[in-house]
Amino acid sequence: MKMPEYFKTVIDFINQIFLPGTVLYYSVWSLVLAVVSVTIYLVMKRLILRFVHAAFLRSSGKWDDLLVEHGVLSPVALLAPAIFLHNAFKYLPSFPEFLTHLFYPFVLFIMALTLDRLMSVGVAIYERYPVAQRYPIRGYVQIVKIVLYLAVAIIIVCYLLGQSPWAFLSGLGALTALILLIFKDTILSFVASVQIVMNDLVRVGDWIEVPQYNADGDVIEIALYTIKVQNWDKTITTIPTYKLIEGSFKNWRGMKQAGGRRIKRSVLIDKRSIRFLSEKDIERLRKIQILKPYIDAKLKELDEYNRVHDIDDSVLVNGRRMTNIGTFRAYLVEYLKQHPKIRKDMTFLVRQLPPSPDGLPLEIYVFSRDIVWANYEAIQADIFDHLLACVPEFGLRVYQRPSGNDIELLSSFITEDTGDSV
After folding, report:
1. Of 15, 205, 257, 340, which is least packed with CB atoms within 10 Å of its CB?
2. How confident is the model at residue 12, as a pLDDT?
3. At 377, phi and psi to the nearest 5?
4. Who's near 84: CB < 8 A, 6+ residues apart?
5. Angle between helices 103-126 and 138-161 (to 10 degrees)
């Protein structure tokens, strides 16, 4: 290849000023080549590529925007200075010959880097479709990238050493154990990724809880090595993929698919307030519209039972009678049945739990129609607002441990009665 006249002029000029082969000679040439290479790179990156990127962003298509976002064309800007240096070293015999041999490995690396980013664009396009939540491919693409870079590294090493890649690979057999040790996490993560996809354990967008990692939120990314969870406080928890398979976790996807979110909460009733209902209590409670059909049916049932069994009703504990706690429980059942945001086709319970030293737990176990967290909490709060306000109407009391204010009030009563200070 004939040397360009402008380059021959520069070589002759520098050779006249500096003695070839000296340290100063190489330093000057290195500086010149570096300045020209950087200039070519900046022209490519700041002018040509910026113009191309702007054209992509102005186009109506969306996929070419991803090429800009992932910087697919950015590595190409490095090719121009590489080509310049490759040709320059050919015309500078004083420089070591091996520098010209670095061009082809560098080009191969640029091609691998460009292909890497193209695969990232493919993943980004794929993840825009709903099927990506069911079958994430990010982990598999990462495996392909690892294999790509390993292949490129082997080819580059063999090229620089002048060896055949097959001969190099045959020598790796003795290093199998070391390779397995180095890529242990990769192998474990790959197997875990396959299990996650095949068994449909986790999808992007699922709400999961992993207590051992303090993770509680939505899955935002499933990759080869890690699964990213955005917690409800907007922090990000990164969980090793194979650790998710080793341990246990809770996936709330079933709740979303069912369309109902469980409300499971109890209120403690003071056991000393539980009693039989008097005639006056029954007449008063019959005025509650949703409770009247229940009271009428229950009175008829109890009267029939007591009559058949010849019960002496002069003693309260004889036979069967209505209680305030049972009537209150029946009221809650009717109230929840008429609630427009409670599902009737799923588990529906208002039950008593075993008594405790703190009282008798009365638990509501139902499902709300709205599964959105904020709406769900509002529905639950409305139900218990109403429940707590209704408790006194049935002659019941909610148990609450004495507070400092209660003790202070009790002390003031004792002081007033005795006239002594406490």
Report:
1. 340
2. 60
3. -65, -35
4. 36, 37, 40
5. 170
For the stretch 87-91, contacts whose Cβ atoms lie closer than 8 Å and that sit 24 or more positions apart, written own/partner, are 87/1, 88/7, 88/33, 90/1, 91/3, 91/7, 91/8, 91/11
Token pair for residue 219? 């899955």
In terms of pTM, does the model score above 0.85? Answer: no
CA separation for the pair 141, 75 (Å, rounded): 20
Residue 62 three-state SS: coil
Dihedral of CA atoms 59, 60, 65, 67 in degrees, nearest 10, equals -70
How far is it, in rounded angstroms, from Cα 64 to Cα 67?
5
Considering the domain delimited by 259-275+323-404, tell me its CATH architecture: 2-Layer Sandwich (3.30)
**203: which strand partners?**
none
Q: Using CA atoms, how far apart are residues 337 and 359, in angstroms rounded to an integer?
A: 26
Give residue 352's pLDDT.
Answer: 94
33-84 pLDDT, tens per residue?
788 888 888 888 888 878 877 777 777 767 777 777 777 778 878 888 887 7
Report CA-CA distances (Å) from 67 to 112, 253, 335.
16, 33, 58
Q: Is 400 exposed, middle or buried (0-12, 13-18, 19+ CB in 10 A)?
A: exposed
3-state secondary structure of 238: strand
pLDDT digits (tens, 9 = 90+) for 154-175: 888 887 777 776 666 665 655 6
The pLDDT score that the predictor gives to residue 147 is 82
Alpha helix positions (H), 127-252: 131-134, 138-161, 165-170, 176-182, 184-198, 241-246
Residues 40 and 48: their CA atoms lie apart, in Å, by: 11
**What are the residue boundaries of the structural domains of the chain, listed by start?**
1-126, 133-258, 259-275+323-404
- Beta-bridge partner residues of 363: 266, 351
Q: Say if CB 276 and CB 327 are below 8 A apart.
A: no
Q: Which helix (H) or strand (E) holds 240?
A: strand 236-240
The class of domain 133-258 in CATH terms is mainly beta
